């Protein structure tokens, strides 16, 4: 079983971040839960993490919201694909959405890095399933 040390939440909704962070912490999903407010901040964090910069642990699990200001989830995914497989390593990437439109779900299929999508906010059952399935 792979150890889950760092989770990165990328979402511009503070309430969702608060609820997800609280749930993940309560379930002790990972000792380190980081939150950034948009795709651009997420990429910036990952560039540092993948370069081995101290204070930026490589996330084992990333949750990305689809609809965000500044840079949305799809723009984030376009950029994320530019990282090498070595950089991404075993990182598990999951999408979060409040509106699972057919169009968005179809569009997600174009991104092989995305393992699955979940509705916001996460439920306890979701977290248990994710940890069991990917870690």
Blueprint (SSEs and pairs):
Elements: E1 6-10, H1 14-26, E2 32-36, H2 39-50, E3 61-65, H3 73-80, H4 85-88, E4 92-97, H5 102-108, E5 114-119, H6 124-134
Parallel strand pairs: 1-2, 1-3, 3-4, 4-5
Helix pairs in contact: 2-3
List keywords for this structure.
135 residues; alpha/beta; five-stranded parallel β-sheet; 6 helices; 5 strands; 20% strand; globular
* Strand order across the largest sheet: 2-1-3-4-5
SS field, number of helical segments: 6
Helix content: 40-55%
Oligomer: single chain
Rg value = 14 Å
Count of beta strands: 5
Low-pLDDT ranges: none
Distance between the first and last residues' Cα? 6 Å
Largest sheet: 5 strands, parallel
SSE string, helices as H and strands as E: EHEHEHHEHEH
Return the average pLDDT rounded to an integer: 95
Overall spatial form: globular
Strand content: 15-25%
Secondary-structure-derived class: alpha/beta
3D structure, described in words:
The protein is an alpha/beta fold and 135 residues long. The model has no long low-confidence stretch (mean pLDDT 95). It has six helices and five strands. The radius of gyration is 14 Å and the shape is globular. It has a five-stranded parallel beta sheet. Strand 4, helix 5 (102-108) and strand 5 form a beta-alpha-beta unit.
Short description:
The chain has helices at residues 14-26, 39-50, 73-80, 85-88, 102-108, 124-134; strands at 6-10, 32-36, 61-65, 92-97, 114-119. With 135 residues, it is of the alpha/beta class.
